[in-house]
Write a sequence for this structure.
């Protein structure tokens, strides 16, 4: 990991609106680099579904190796309606998360200034989801039998390891300690009788005596609580699938999934970490120039923080918050600004 003032970042804009929001965030970071006196070398990786159409794969055979000496990866989105998601996501996004042991997926959720939550105005939303990012329900263990026959079947095994749960829980405990001291563990140990009781046991061991107040909540009830009492939540630790679903739910509760950011972290910094918005390629609005770039910009701010550029990160967050507060908003937030208009306003706020 490079701790100097010059950073090498691989950019995978990817598919759909990834091609629109990624350049928008890169533009802001370039302005910040000049202002804060650091340097970013962007290594543009034209990987994704177009690459797949030409080469039959989502990235080159040695794609992971090419990324391995960079300081961070900045990803837009992956996925396109005419290619199965198993090809696209399991050919790019998921291998990067796994090969680089990005076992924490950090997803902060806040109602930003100028944004109206669909909830009652008096509800505060300021929470962080710590999602286990490399195992759990997203496993490759399983298979299909009797394809195409009436007897056809599919089996998909969940894989939960003590090491995997422990490191996610430990990260969440530390984060909770640095915030309110409250941690909520998402579980389903009433219906999923092997893996989820194990999750609960390991979380309890890690959190025991750590000085945080832990409550475990069944995921169904927790989903309702995110809507009804989001102010009662601070740090949530969740398995891969539960964390995924809670992220879009909490993002929507905070106004739009278009603003939600995400950091795929390899905490020991043995490998590059990856920063991306929570949302996907949004084929329904792709190419129209109306995508909200805030999720990508906020992910960019998390990346700057990770690279040791905390004051640039704070400036970027302040700039998009100022623009939102001034009433310039994209359609998903009830405004009329295009991606380009919003981005130009952020660049102007940075100047
Ligand atoms: P999505 O997040 O792409 O879109 C869901 C809805 O939210 C759509 O109506 C979309 O228009 C809207 N939306 C999303 N981002 C927005 C933004 N920045 N501004 C305004 N509106 C926005 O989810 P989906 O439709 O379920 O998935 C589309 C494709 O993306 C699929 O192939 C899916 O697998 C993939 N995907 C990829 C990632 C990723 O690369 N990290 C994440 C999620 C989904
Ligand atoms: C996310 C996405 C991915 C996930 C998909 C596209 C595989 O939804 O990053 O939230 O579930 O991890
Ligand atoms: Mn998701």
């Amino acid at each position: 990991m490079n701790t100097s003032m010059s950073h090498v970042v691989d950019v995978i804009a990817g598919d759909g609106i990834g091609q629109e929001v990624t350049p928008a965030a890169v533009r802001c970071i370039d302005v910040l680099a000049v202002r804060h006196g650091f340097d970013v070398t962007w290594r543009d990786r034209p990987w994704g579904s177009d690459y797949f159409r030409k080469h039959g794969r989502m990235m080159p055979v040695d794609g992971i190796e090419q990324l391995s000496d960079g300081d961070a990866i900045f990803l837009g989105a992956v996925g396109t309606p005419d290619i199965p998601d198993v090809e696209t996501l399991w050919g790019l996004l998921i291998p990067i998360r796994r090969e680089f042991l990005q076992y924490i997926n950090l997803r902060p959720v806040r109602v930003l200034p100028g944004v109206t939550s669909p909830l009652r105005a008096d509800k505060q939303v300021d929470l962080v989801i710590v999602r286990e990012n490399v195992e759990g329900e997203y496993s490759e263990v399983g298979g299909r039998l009797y394809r195409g026959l009436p007897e056809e079947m599919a089996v998909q095994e969940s894989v939960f390891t003590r090491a995997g749960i422990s490191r996610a829980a430990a990260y969440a405990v530390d984060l909770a300690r640095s915030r309110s001291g409250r941690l909520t563990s998402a579980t389903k140990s009433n219906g999923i009788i092997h893996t989820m009781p194990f999750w609960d046991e390991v979380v309890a061991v890690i959190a025991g005596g750590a000085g945080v107040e832990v409550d475990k909540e069944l995921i169904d009830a927790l989903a309702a609580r995110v809507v009804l009492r989001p102010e009662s939540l601070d740090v949530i630790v969740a398995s891969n699938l539960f964390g995924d679903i809670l992220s879009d739910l909490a993002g929507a509760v905070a106004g739009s999934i278009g603003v939600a950011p995400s950091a795929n972290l390899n905490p020991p910094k043995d490998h590059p970490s990856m920063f991306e918005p929570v949302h996907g390629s949004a084929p329904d609005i792709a190419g129209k120039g109306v995508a909200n770039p805030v999720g990508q910009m906020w992910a960019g701010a998390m990346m700057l923080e990770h690279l040791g550029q905390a004051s640039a990160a704070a400036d970027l967050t302040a700039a998009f918050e100022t623009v939102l507060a001034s009433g310039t908003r994209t359609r998903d937030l009830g405004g009329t600004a295009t991606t380009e208009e919003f981005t130009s306003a952020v660049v102007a706020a940075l100047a």
Q: What stands out?
A: The chain has a mean pLDDT of 97.
